[in-house]
Structures are given as structure tokens and as C-alpha cells.
Amino acid sequence: MAIRVLLVDDQPLLRTGFRMILEAEQDLAVVGEAGDGLQALDQVRALQPDVVLMDIRMPRMDGVEATRQITGPERDGPAKVLVLTTFDLDEYVVEALKAGASGFLLKDAPANELVQAIRVVAGGEAMLAPSITRRLLDKYATHLPSGEEPVPDTLHTLTEREVEVLKLVARGLSNAEIAADLFVSETTVKTHVGHVLTKLGLRDRVQAAVYAYESGLVRPGAQ
């Protein structure tokens, strides 16, 4: 079955461009469009898309709040959110990742990257662009809002190796890169990542990276 995509952007011309790109792919289907966050919530409930391509800065309700409601505990469906941003160092992107987005992409990314990002997110993985993600976290981690409650002190539940893996995830390394760094197989890395997410109650690698910074395990700028 085709991956169902909802386009959310306050610029109709951009939505038209994205639609043309996506509808050229046999495994992707654009099921609707929205011009702001409130419309996006209505469309998610009505259309049940697999992936929401979400702009950040929009009228009435921005992409951060819309993402929070779409991916929150009272969510109406399985939709994943892929955030679109004009700038690769946009603090709102970090807020969107904390709100539950599965990743982000620059609006001027090549068409093939947009298509691949949607497929990755639809498959349940986080869309992490390692270099940009790390720059974002390095720049804004010290300013990340704490939320309603402080991050729980659950690091003690992880094994020493799981802590190592979490640090490398936070640095934006892929499974292959982590495997090479620790001299283990990619399968072993995937197992460790899965244990980390389960023990810390996190959804994906994006949340794991943010958690590592918020908990103080990784410091901005640290190698």
C-alpha cells in the first residue's frame, strides 16, 4: 500500500511543488493539504495519513504545537511528523523534535532526499541528518525548555555499553558508524539502541539524542 502523506505549509506554491514531487512516486500518495496547524489537526483526524510533512512557522497554530497534538498520548492515529524548515539552525526544530517529530528536512533539500525521508519516517525510523542534527543540539541544548517536569534520572537503568551507544546516538552517528566505533556488529548496535529506547521510555533516536543532552550525559560541543 502507498504511504499516505499530508502536506502542511502556509505557502500554496510550496505545497504544489511537494505534491508534484511525491505523486511521481508509485509508493507515495498525497491525501490532503493544510495551510496551518489547526487545519492539519482536522486533516489528520479525517484522513489518517501515515506521514505529515509539517512546516514550522504558520498562522493560527504553528508546527510545533500541531506536532505535539498529533504525536501526543491522545493522538487519533499513527501519523509520523517530518518537520520542514528553511534554516538548518532553527531553534523551533529542536522544539518540534521534543514535541514528537520523527525528524526534519530542509525545504531546499533535493527531491530524492524528500522522498527518502518520508519513506524512512513512515517505516518507523527517525530521520536524522547527523551533521545538522548535532549542530542544532550543540547550539540549542543549553536553552531547551525543561517542560512541565524535569527529565527523570533513569540513566542508572542502562548498562555501561548502552550508555556508550546513547552518547554516540546523541552525536548523530548512524548504526554503521557506531558499530565501527565500538567494534561490534550493526545488529548488536540495533539491539542496544532498542534497549535504550525501551528503558528510557523514548520513541526513537531523535528523542534519545535530546534526552542525552537534557540529562547532562552529553554536553554541547563535546566530542
TrEMBL record:
Post-translational modification 4-aspartylphosphate, affected residues: 55
Protein name: Response regulator transcription factor
Cited InterPro entries: CheY-like_superfamily, NreC/VraR/RcsB-like_REC, Sig_transdc_resp-reg_C-effctor, Sig_transdc_resp-reg_receiver, Tscrpt_reg_LuxR_C, WalR-like
Residue ranges constituting the HTH luxR-type domain according to the UniProt record: 151-216
PROSITE patterns reported for this sequence: HTH_LUXR_1, HTH_LUXR_2, RESPONSE_REGULATORY
Entries under Pfam families matching the protein: GerE, Response_reg
UniProt domain Response regulatory: residue ranges: 4-122
Family matches, as Gene3D superfamilies: 3.40.50.2300
Keywords: DNA-binding, Phosphoprotein, Transcription, Transcription regulation
